[in-house]
Write a structure and sequence with these properties.
Helix 1 runs parallel beside helix 4, helix 2 runs antiparallel to helix 4 and helix 3 runs antiparallel to helix 4. The protein is an alpha+beta fold. The chain is built from 13 helices and 9 strands. It starts with 11 loop residues before the first helix and ends in a 7-residue tail after the last helix. Bound molecules: 3,4-dihydroxyphenylalanine.
Length: 352
């Protein structure tokens, strides 16, 4: 870069001429590298550069000539600034793409996936529908009768404490269902046996939220009512489910338990194994994991739904979908199912 004409002479016409010459010289420059840029700045823009010294000299111009020289000087300043700006615009690495086309769709086309809870729910439904179970759904806002009383759990029954219930404040006879067993009642009052249904859905309990419990979760309820249904039928059906879901080699065991709506009642464990340290932790050293509750439908429940308990019998079972999903996908904190963290959900994108 040359042209170090920076001093005014006595003749202002030639001063203006020189300023214009510098300007057109600057305009013709093609700054390519950062070194050239720095060189340019120190020559023209910095404190000791051409522009500044011309402005300093400007004080000595007689007042009546200041206007013309000042204009030429300002033009030079603009030309220098333009040169700097155009270098920045061409070389910056953080150019915003938004300035290209404001109507451009910037969302990527990645395909979503099924939520892991839906994957598990669908798999369970598929297994039971292959042996004749149909879907039957009920409301999440229930009344006391369907959620408790008809299920052989009258008011003041201690079993009500097992399920800390959310009541609707403006209408205490309404509540958020605490289990999907309420759908049994709805279905049995509206349909005649034989009945073979599966009822998936969301349930609510007033539980402190932790890695093992949440105030909302999902269950699947099963119900089979017909003539001569026995406990052996229940056991065989649950073994079929366990083998289909957890693998052909699966074993189950039934432990006596208590639910107001079934008699006898049992809890179902699946054999998980005791090979690793985490198997010990998950199964509390037993090798067995509880997966659901079940039993023979209590005759009182059949009576409450106007089903002849002399003629018909049946079994019911209920399982938590989160619990099964945590086992299947080795998830150790229930809360991740509701956080919608894309990094968690993306891990299931290859599954249908
Ligand atoms: N409703 C029970 C619960 O939420 C689960 C259950 C247990 C359902 C036994 C049943 C059953 O149908 O027979 O804990």
């Amino acid at each position: 870069m040359c042209c170090d004409q920076s001093k005014y002479t006595q003749n202002n016409t030639s001063v203006i001429k020189k300023i214009n010459e510098i300007a057109s010289f600057v305009e013709g420059l093609n700054l390519k590298t950062h070194e050239e840029l720095e060189d340019f700045k120190s020559k023209y823009k910095n404190k000791s550069g051409v522009l500044n010294s011309l402005f300093n000299e400007f004080k000595n111009i007689p007042n009546n000539e200041k206007k013309e020289v000042g204009k030429a000087l300002n033009d030079l300043k603009n030309t220098i600034n333009k040169k700097l700006n155009s270098f920045e615009a061409n070389n910056t690495t953080t150019q915003e793409t938004i300035s290209d086309d404001l109507t451009k769709n910037t969302l990527s086309n990645s395909i979503g996936s099924c939520h892991p809870l839906s994957l598990v729910e669908n798999q369970i439904i598929k297994i039971f529908s292959s042996i004749g179970f149909n879907l039957s759904e009920g409301p999440e806002i229930e009344d006391d009768w369907h959620n408790f009383t008809a299920l052989n759990t009258p008011e003041d029954h201690p079993a009500r404490d097992m399920q800390d219930t959310f009541f609707v404040q403006t209408n205490p006879s309404k509540l958020l269902r605490s289990h999907t067993s309420s759908v049994q009642i709805r279905h049995m009052t509206e349909n005649n046996p034989p009945i073979r249904i599966l009822s998936p859905g969301r349930v609510y309990r007033n539980e402190a939220i932790s890695s093992r419990a949440h105030c909302l979760f999902h269950q699947i309820e099963g119900l089979y009512i017909d003539k001569n249904v026995s406990f052996a039928d229940l056991k065989k059906t649950l073994l079929f489910f366990a083998k289909s879901f957890f693998g052909e080699k699966s074993k189950i065991r039934l432990r006596p338990s208590y639910f107001p709506f079934t008699e006898p009642s049992a809890e179902v464990d699946v054999y998980w194994g005791l090979k690793t340290e985490s198997d010990y932790r998950i199964t509390k050293g037993t090798g067995w994991l509880e997966i659901m509750g079940c039993g023979m439908v209590d005759p009182n429940v059949l009576k409450n739904c106007n089903i002849d308990q002399e003629k018909y019998s049946g079994y019911a079972f209920g399982m938590g979908i989160e619990r099964i999903a945590m086992l299947k996908y080795k998830v150790d904190d229930i809360r991740v199912f509701y956080e919608n963290d894309i990094r968690f959900l993306n891990q299931f994108s290859s599954q249908l």
